[in-house]
């Protein structure tokens, strides 16, 4: 896992911009003297892990970029300097002395991490170009979080000469879980999960009016392409009542994607977004042989004292325990917002759900070792149920909490989706 990723944190942090004061007020009136600006970090227990990442050396993804603009000045006071942690002073420091003198009545501050992000910051406009690492094999394991801060402070109005930078998560965080609600002998096996047709990049712009754009952030998607994210899985077997995490969890595969408005797939060629699963459905019955041979149309295999009916996918006239097929569920129209997580809980074989529908035939082409993929090529099947009914689901929407707000990063609300 890339150490610069801010993984599953309660919130990105709070940094303090410290002004080293001088005892002689006469220096405030000097053109080249004033309060030397340096940085320190003060975070709650809930965000100590984030602090540790920021405090790492630059070579390991630590530090942050900072900009400062003085009102009515022709050039930036701080122009993209890198603030790196000094363990001796216990402050973040840039590589030159910058002063806040008395004639600088108001200063606007911007900061972001990681430091290798492409940004264009001036007094007139501020933007960050960001493209999450895209993979069909590793999910979000190699993705980085993006945290940003914006503050405006007036001279003499900062308690203890400390400018507080409140970092916010700028991305959306996505999980996919599944549960087999079957009350009979249906067994669900899943060997891969992907989110299909979402924007691969965005431009984050800042607006000083926080009422217009929450946390001063607005995302646009100029030159974005529709791509897919996800990963193959080890053999995930879910008997009735069993649930599993498909994207996210201990393997750090949850996705950190650019915020965007999602349009769900209509299976009629609109190119909308959906969740794609590589799945297999079986019926497990006691007894090594099936009584009444020839009464079932589905293929039958054996496993010790059980016999197995292969319900999906269909594979000619022989049983194949390595055969899997693609199923899908459309993502309901929704806006993924910065600083929020979205946990999609897929429900199979419940009172109002089945095994999903056949996905579009132009879905991502994925190879999974040890799996014989039986793909649908019949356009007439696209969007039709695979076994009885589509998959139903809910999505939990929760904000990544500031340390001052909550230490519970999983505090969220359950929003039903049709």
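^ Assign residues to that structure.
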């Amino acid at each position: 896992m890339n150490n610069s990723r801010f993984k599953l944190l309660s919130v990105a942090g709070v940094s303090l911009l410290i002004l080293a004061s001088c005892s002689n007020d006469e220096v405030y009136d000097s053109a080249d003297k004033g309060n030397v600006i340096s940085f320190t970090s003060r975070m709650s227990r809930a965000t100590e892990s984030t602090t540790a990442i920021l405090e790492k050396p630059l070579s390991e993804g630590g530090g942050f970029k900072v900009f400062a603009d003085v009102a009515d000045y022709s050039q930036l006071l701080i122009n993209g300097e890198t603030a790196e942690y000094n363990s001796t002073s216990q402050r973040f420091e840039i590589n030159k002395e910058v002063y806040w003198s008395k004639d600088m009545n108001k200063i606007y501050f911007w900061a972001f991490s990681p430091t290798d992000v492409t940004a264009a910051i001036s007094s007139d406009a501020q933007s960050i170009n960001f493209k999450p690492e895209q993979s069909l094999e590793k999910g979000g394991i190699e993705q980085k979080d993006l945290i940003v801060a914006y503050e405006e402070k007036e001279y003499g109005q900062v308690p203890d000469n400390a400018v507080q930078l409140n970092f916010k998560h700028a991305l959306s965080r996505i999980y996919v879980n599944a549960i087999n609600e079957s009350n009979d002998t249906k067994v669900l096996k899943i060997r891969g999960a992907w989110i299909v047709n979402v924007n691969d990049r965005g431009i984050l712009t800042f607006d000083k009016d926080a009422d217009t754009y929450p946390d001063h952030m607005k995302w646009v998607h100029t030159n974005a392409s529709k791509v897919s994210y996800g990963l193959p899985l080890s053999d995930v077997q879910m008997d009735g009542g069993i649930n599993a995490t498909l994207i996210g969890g201990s393997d750090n595969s949850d996705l950190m994607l650019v915020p965007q408005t999602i349009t769900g797939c209509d299976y009629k060629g609109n190119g909308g977004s959906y969740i794609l699963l590589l799945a297999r459905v079986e019926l497990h019955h006691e007894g090594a042989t099936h009584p009444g041979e020839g009464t079932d149309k589905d293929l039958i295999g054996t496993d010790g004292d059980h016999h197995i009916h292969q319900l999906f996918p269909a594979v000619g006239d022989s049983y194949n325990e390595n055969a899997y097929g693609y199923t899908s569920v459309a993502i309901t129209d929704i806006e993924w917002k910065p600083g929020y997580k979205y946990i999609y809980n897929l429900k199979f074989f419940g009172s109002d759900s089945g095994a999903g529908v056949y996905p579009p035939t132009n879905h991502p082409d994925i190879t999974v070792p040890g799996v014989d993929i039986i793909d649908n090529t019949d356009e007439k099947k696209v969007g039709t149920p695979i076994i009885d009914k589509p998959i139903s689901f809910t999505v939990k929407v929760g904000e990544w909490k500031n340390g001052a707000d909550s230490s519970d990063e999983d505090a969220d609300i359950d929003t039903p989706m049709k």
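Residues 1-12, 19-34, 40-48, 402-418 have pLDDT under 50 and may be disordered.
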